[in-house]
UniProtKB/TrEMBL annotation:
Together with methyltransferase FTSJ1, methylates the 2'-O-ribose of nucleotides at position 34 of the tRNA anticodon loop of substrate tRNAs. Required for the correct positioning of the substrate tRNA for methylation. Required to suppress amino acid starvation-induced autophagy. Enhances the STK11/LKB1-induced cell growth suppression activity. Residues 1167-1188 are annotated as: Disordered. It is found in: Cytoplasm. This is tRNA (34-2'-O)-methyltransferase regulator WDR6. Keywords: Cytoplasm, Repeat, tRNA processing, WD repeat. PROSITE patterns: WD_REPEATS_2 (PS50082), WD_REPEATS_REGION (PS50294). WD repeats lie at residues 195-228, 249-288.
Amino acid sequence: MERAALVAPITALEFLREEYLLTGEGPILTVYSLHSQPRACASRSVLHNYRIHGIRPQPHPGDGGSTATEEDLVVFGGKAVRLLRLSAKGQRLEPAGPLMELQDWALDIHWVSGKEGTFLVVALAHNAALLLDPLKGRLLALRSCEEGCLLYSALILGETWEDAVLVGGTVFNQLVLWKPGGTQPDEKAQVERRLPGHSGVIFSLCYLRATGWLASASDDRSVRVWSVGDLGGPGEECGDLSPVCLRVLYGHQARVFFVKLSPGRVYSAGEDGACLLWDWERGGRVTRTLKGHRAGGVRALAVSEGGGGLGRWVATGGADGGIRMWRVEEEKWGAEGGTGETESLVDLGFQGRGLPKGVCMVGDGHWSQGRVVVTTDQGEVYLYEEGRWRLLWEGGPEFQSYCVMEVLRVRGWGYTVSWEGICAVGSLGGVLQVFPLSQPGAGLLLRAGSGKVHSVLWAQGPAEGQRRSGYLLASGAQGLVHRWKVQVEMRVSGLVIRAEPLDPLLLTPCAKCWLTTAVYLDWPQGALWVCGDRRGSLLLFEERQQHGEKKSADGKEDSSDGVSRENLKMFESSNESKEGIIGEGCEDKWRESEASSAESAIQAVSSLFGLHGKQGVTWVCEHQKLLYSAGRDGCVRVLQVGPKGLEVLRVQRACKGMEWLERVLLEPQDLEDDQNIHELGGTGSGKEARFVMLGFHSVLFVLWDPVRQERLLSVSCGGGHRSWSYCPHEGGLSKGQGALVFIKQGAVLASQPTVEAPSRAGSWCLREGFHGRGVGCVCHLGAVGEAAEDRWEVLATGGEDTSLTLLAVQSQTGAVKVLSVITDHISNIRALTAVQRLDGKTDRGQIAMLSHSVLLISAGGRAQMHCYRLLIQGNGSLDPPSCQVIQVASHRLDDQWERKRNRHRMVKMDPETRYMSVAVVDDTSESVLLALACSDGAVRLFSVSEGRQCFELLWESFHHQRCVLSIATCCLEGEQDNRSVFLFSAATDGAIAVWDMSTIANPEGKLYPAARATPTPCLIVPAHQSGVNALAVSVEGLGAGHGNGARITLVSGGDDGQLSVALIGMQYQEEVVEGRRVRLQVQSQFSLASAHAAPLTALKILSPGLLASTSPDQRVCLWSLASTGVTQQASLFSHVADAAGLDAWKGDADQGWVVVCGQGLQLLKVTDRDDGGNQQGPTNKNGHVGGREACVSVGSPVLFRRNEQNPVPSKSLYSA
């Protein structure tokens, strides 16, 4: 077996000057070049089975190493130490010394100089220090402290071995300082200084020589800064005689794992996933918070030395496997944390008559570069431009006390004016004023009925032309939406606005019948309108051809069913008088016109009533034939226009507590692709775009990324019940760059320039994060790509963070790309299964495919199930595939309980049930039969129908009377159309029950009446002394030497670490006995008592006779199954801690693949199934070595009595 790809917690980070970032992930060291755009330039597996916990480049006194052609660095983790050499430009990593294996854990390493060269001082976990020669792997000196306690952290200071000082954080919650080089070889060093104060163990230490400060991060959620004086300098003194604690910093919500110091700054990161920047001169308060990782916390922190006036780099590595970098300016500080949010707001100093009521911003990314338009309760419109306010337009009495406003941005004229804004203002009496911002006098008055204008909306027109036109929609009384096509023209006399009236739209009658959002679809099959109303409904309208004119069979125009062209009037700002709109005697005329307009209004052809709840739809947009809608129910829905109208494909929820969504913003890259498609005359591929959500979380305005599960922007504005406007910066959406302008307490406020976004200013995402917590299950969905070098393996994973992640892994390079994150589950996901669907482009017999259609079922806590249709499409290049997610159905056992109104007054008798395992019993064209193992002791059979979009519970059995842990199925096609389907279930008592499901699952897909009666097991197989965690089944059918029957191989693994195999014979009977046509009997049974050193958690049959297994002992084993016993074929150490799930599948030729999940994910390649174990394997492009590497053992067996031959599993020191 060979390691192909790895996603694991980032446990080590270190900057090499300002040029490179060194990262440690498992045993793999990766070098990122920081020139221009950061990228990975070298990678190599260096510590065999140990996890990297520290990287120490060799210092170069004087010039800082800037002229060195090669850089030496030492990497350590666990009990391993290795010297490496990085070539010029960081393109090559080579070993410069042997892999040294110590007899104790290495906590810190420091370079020191000696007479014969440079050496390494290693701080050990039992409060001892080693002096090593890294080139020869030779032990030069060993010293220990008289206080031989266990250390959780250590720090070594000094330039020579004689001056070295070791600072250790003990299990007794205190710091001890001692000098390892000042004692004789046979003596133990005394403790020079002792620093008590922490109430928890110390995880991290940092020393700043310029100030003599020592910082410590602890389990008690605090950071302490001590004044200790000069440590590691020449002489026998160990700093100040009486060190004092200068300040205690509290700000983290969980344990603090790391601390770094710079002049005037303290950096800390911890389990809460936040990196806090503390300003010492401001009283030690948090001036900025950097967040970029999911649940699980920050596992590595690095701060560069800075210089050149560009500030410092701050890098964090998370438990989710992600790497983030921020550029921190020395003189600028962001706005999040402490009182920063209020300081980030700027009062634009509105100066006008009356109070501001509505605000719109037109520009690119910031109010200082664009224009802010404000309307007041006096019916006036003001413009903020270049730092000052001026009056644009003054309305009459009909615009006072109430008016609604919206601004459309169109392309400008010439190089000086790149864009122009068209403002529309609606009144209480149905009058609209439309005017350009640059020439308010060239306005145009329109009429939208005789009643109140509830809302004014602009919609972009077709993409052709100069983009100087748009559609104006005004929602009037009785659900009537008046429309105009507005164009802006440049003439000799100036700008001219032309408005062409269109047939109105009629909304579905309801209590809140007015328009809130609309989008125009210019599709080849016809023009469409998708509108959202205040009641939460989405409506689809078909535009009449040429405003009511149809084309007859002979191609001539026919206007018999529409409004004639003679009745349509073209309004123009140069010839329309105000008296013709609002003069005396016009009310009756407009009432008659409104009645005639209602008769000719366009009715909705499709409606989704109350789709977004009762609070309204806030946004709808279109991208490549897909629609995206948002509402105040906290959901974004992805839709398409199908044969029957609007169809919901899937629902994406925002973060918890973010119930008010206002907009959906697409990523700039997707917008560029959409524009290229339009320019080429294409119609789009239906590929779902990556988007972010914009809305309100309590009193905060939030920009939320559903894929990374993080906030991109957060502004304290007071909530959404106010007028506001947000303008994203072009190209900066993914970094949260944009500007917010809002009205609060009669003032117009704006956020600071978002080149300093609150949490991600100047940030780079070097690697996307994965699940922040443990991954409990993994399922292979298929492979995309023709050639091996561009093939992507598509996987689905479910974790404890309640998210379902779809990702693509490129086996040749180890690249991992997250395709989609689904957050529909309310508890952890325990089981996944997939069913391949054929759509005409897919062949089930091929490995490399261009597209896949998969039905994915997920199950987990709170007895919740979800079914999705996944459309996986490859692009024929090295780019990762795309994945369209369509929600099919969902189900919970306690749905009826959730719908009870007075459930808070009643006691729920049934405990919370968890689905532990799921298996497919039968797959037909109409439905899929699923068997689920439940924690309440039941085995349940469900049917999920894609056509009816629902789950149906067929039967349940409580035979086990205890928690059912695992479930599996097998199917056998016999002679004379005999089809046998068996179900295997195992519980915590160690027994396996066999169920005959042949009468339920049938080729026709019909459910027999007998399925309603609960069956009983036909065979009980005792296998383990405790719980059975995993089952695997294979069948040898007719023609394999079993007469008129077959043989079933049942493999199980349990908490006792035992691997059990039972061979079950199956014989067909001529007569039906007790309702069964087959008879099962255990032929033989054998087991391997110590298959793993920990509970066996997952099993999978890779091919007939070949089995893969895994366990928290971090071994992945291949077993050969035979009728006489089970033998081990191969074993490989996995870098995934707490392994919980496994999947395996066949690849090309004799290749196979195994993926393991737990605290991360690792893809393994099975190249030679006759391999005998951990032999030296080839090195792939990433330098991942597939075999055991020779190492030099360093240490004294007298001092360390335990001399383990096998390395300790790479469990993080900071695990709970």
